[in-house]
Structures are given as structure tokens and as C-alpha cells.
Amino acid sequence: MLATIVGLAVAVWTVGAADFANVMHTAGRLGAGGFLAYCAWSLGIYGLLGAAWLAAAPGEPGARLSLFTWARLVREGVADLLPFSHLGGLIVSARVLASAGIPARRVYGSLVVDMTTEMAGQVVFTLFGLAQMTSILIGNHAAVALRPAILGGTGVMIALMLAFFGAQQRALDLAAVIAARFLPNSTGMLAEIRGELRAIYARRDHVLLAFGFNLLAWIASGIGGWIALRLMGVSMSIWYVLSLESLIFTLRSVAFMIPGALGVQEVAYALAGPLFGLPAETALALSLAKRAREIALGAPTLLLWQMNEMRAITAKSR
Fold first, then answer.
1. Which topology term describes how it sits in the membrane (predicted)?
2. Structural domain count, the chain
3. Under a CB-based contact definition with an 8 Å cutoff, are residues 300 and 76 in contact?
């Protein structure tokens, strides 16, 4: 909650410092029709994310794509709009799948693989963005000042991915020890999850498919920023936007403990946008469009999720 309040204060101050009226005027050029088109594009990206998670769960039929897509919508809605970190979204999305009758071992095993391939996809997208950034910003003194943050953020992302991948089995071993001490009946489940992980990683075609869908989702998210700018009447090279977006996504991911990366996203746009020829107020207008999209998609998702939870509780009480 404290991180949310501080992040919100930083976001408001950043927008105010860049001239609130100009930021709102630029964002307003998106219009209702443009905003709906932007939201529709984002829904398509959730379809890619759902397909990635489904691919990481061998044995689940393709007909369950809508269920996995729904779970991803809930995950992002919780992470973006509730005062939780991304960990809260992971827990809730796993519950959504488990409540639909998918075995717990498959839910948690596929969740780990999905997260791993998603992080790997982001690293590839970030490295592509850095390569573009090097050629675009070479000789730019302002870019040199931001280089430590850019390279540091990328390094942290790669380190987190490697640590997450290498620690999966050790984390399960530690969880098994803790569970044996406090929850004796849960040790069997941890063994099942460990076995499920081994089975999924043995299906390399599914792991590669999950990676491919996640990488496509990152690229599509970057293109979404370009689409939003075009709808605002801002003409900018798609390569510039993809490079900028890869940097923003990296900084957001490093700040995963801050709900919705509040404040981090706004400061990153205000500082990095001008390096690509995008005025700070226009970059912040794009940030506001993203926040509005998160609310427009996340709020109905959370409402439906709560309605489903209440329906399940009511059915059990009967």
C-alpha cells in the first residue's frame, strides 16, 4: 500500500512537471474510437499470452484457450489495479485455473514454465531494443547519462531470469522442507509439481511454443504503443517506438514489487521519450493511455472475477 501511494504521488508529480494541460490535451486526441481500437489490440495480446500459458500445459485441450486467456486477464488486472505486487496476480490466476478443474500440479508447473519463457522472451525483446537504441542514440549525450540505468535494468532482468530458471528445483526443495514441518499433507503435492515440471520441460516443442507466443506478445505490446501514438496523430518510426517500449518494459519489470509500476513508468517515459524525439508531454500522454487501458480492461475483469468467486462460495454453502 505504501509503494502504491508513493508511486502514485511520483506519477502525479511527473505529469504535473511536464505540464498537465498539454499532457491531457495530447492524450485526448486519441478519442473514444481510437481508445477502443487500442483496447481491442490489447485484448488480442492477451490471447497470445493465454496461448503461451496453454502451450506450457501439455495435456490441456486447445478448447481451453479462452480459460487460460481469462486467467491472464485476471493476473494483469490484479497486478495493475490492486495494491499487490505481481506475485498477487500470479496467485489469483493460478486459483482461477484450479477452480476450473485443472489439476493443481499442472496449474503450478505450467505457471512456472510460462513465467520462465515470458522472461526469456522479454530478454530477447530487450536485447533487440538495445541494439536499435545503440544505432539510434549514438553520440547523444543525454542517452549517455541514462546508459547506466538502461544497461543496469537489462542486467537485472537477465540475472532475474537466470536465477529464476536455476532456482526452480531448489525452491521446490525448500518448499517441501517447510511444508513437511508445518503442512505434512502438502508434501505429496510438491512432489507432483516437481514431476510435472520435469514432464513439461521434456516436451521441448511445447516450451518453445510458449516462448514464441510470449515473444510475439512482447513485440505486439510494443507495436501497441506505436498504434496509440498514431491514433493521437503522432508520427514516429515503429523501430523507435519498439526500442523505447523495450526500455519501458524492462524498467517496469525490474520494479515488479511496485503495484502497476506506478511512478516508475511515468518517470521512464518522461526521461526516455525525448531521447527518441518524443516530447515529454507526448510520452506521458502515451503512459496515461496505457493506464486508462489498464482500468478499462482490468476493472470489468476484476468485477467478473469477484462475481465468479461469490458464485462459487454460494454454491459451496448450499
1. Multi-pass membrane protein
2. 1
3. no
Question: Is residue 257 very low, low, confident or very high in pLDDT (cuts 50, 70, 90)?
Answer: confident
Tell which residue, 106, 104, 90, has the closest CA to residue 199.
106
Length of the chain: 318
- Is the C-alpha dihedral spanning 180, 185, 187, 193 positive or negative? negative
> What does the pLDDT look like over 198-229, one tens digit per residue?
888 889 899 999 999 999 999 999 999 999 99
Question: What proportions of the chain, in percent to the nearest 5, are helix, strand and coil?
Answer: 85, 0, 15
State the Cα–Cα distance between residues 52 and 57, nearest whole angstrom.
9
Nearest by Cα to 62 from 71, 51, 70: 51
Residue 236 has pLDDT above 70, yes or no: yes
Instruction: Return the ∠ at Cα 97 (arms to 57 and 165), rounded to 5°.
Output: 45
How much is the average pLDDT of 70-86? 86
- DSSP character for 92? H
Residue 9 lies in a domain: no
**Within-domain flag for 135:** yes
With contact defined as beta carbons under 8 Å apart, do 60 and 102 qualify? yes
pLDDT at 35 over 90: yes
Residue 263, C-alpha cell as written in the block: 511512478
Question: What residue numbers bound the domain in which 113 lies?
Answer: 35-166+204-317
